[in-house]
User: Fold this.
Amino acid sequence: MSASLFFSPGAHAEPAANKPPSAVKKKSAKPKASAAKTNAKAAHKTSKDAPAKPFGERADLMAFAATLAHEQGWELHELQSTLAQARSVPAVQRLIMPAAAGTAKDWAAYRARFVEPRRLQAGLAFWEQYAAPLARAEARYGVPAELIAGLIGVETFYGQITGGFHVLDALATLAFDFPSGRSDRSAFFRNELVEFLKLCRREGLDPLAVKGSYAGAMGWPQFMPSSWNRYAVDFDGDGHANPIQSAEDAIGSVANYLAAFGWQRGMPTHYSVALPVETSARALLLAPDIKPTFSVAQLRENGALPSEAAQEHVGPLAVVELQNGSAAPSYWLGTENFYALTRYNWSSYYAMAVIEMGRALKTMRAAPASN
Assistant:
């Protein structure tokens, strides 16, 4: 992850089962983490941040270790020794900060970061190589193969960019040295640090060696430790759920995650709509943000004109706004499946980028080969 192009740590960082996928609930008009993950390496290498500083036997960290060792029945000295080797990383503190106020949102620019030739070609190769597990995941969980492929492409360029920070450093920094200037999320990251240590013990991973994003997200699907522990599945049959090393496990885990957060088999993600010109009516329709709230009848009562396909939809819909810089915004009706995608990252831009990426891959894959 990096600080560029409207970001925050990603909705899958904080599953909606506990609270909305950002500890600081934000409007979906502000695209988030995954838009910036593609530049994580560059940001990490070129920043002029101060050097990382070892925590050592800092009192608050050692007290945390003592409590955790007691709760889990772990050996205290070993845990304290591991945590003492974590480093407080200024680059992590910088990257976790929100984008500067007043940054213009532009859906076309956001989309272009992902739905572009190199990533599409990588996506086609990924789909070709993993066609069987993608089809199996769709059959089991109901999530279309193109959306699973699109999401992994948006997240990590098909495993090419998974983060260059030591996860222990990132989580310890945000748990114990969370920067001022935004709402304090240290409690969330302390919980993720606990989940990470549990994960490492269960899977036999060296906590000092695992790398990920500046927020502690890992592997092909960029799961936070808590999401890994709850939703990762062994999809390749080797006895371990490991979406860092196994693309098949990533495929199954992404589908399992979306199914757990309400994905409904066969339901479209969105429909087109014309919004009323009257300002107050439009504001009323946009107020719930990406949460599906309105029936088709309620939309029409408030002056919206859903498409013919939307008028056949059964269930609540959200009015989704995508800003286009200085041009007029685009509006869509998001279904409960659109909302499920935003549980992975609290952003309508993110969800639409995944949809567009998947749609482009499916179209390209179906096209006859050129001579």
Remarks:
- Confidence is low (pLDDT under 50) at residues 1-11, 13-46.
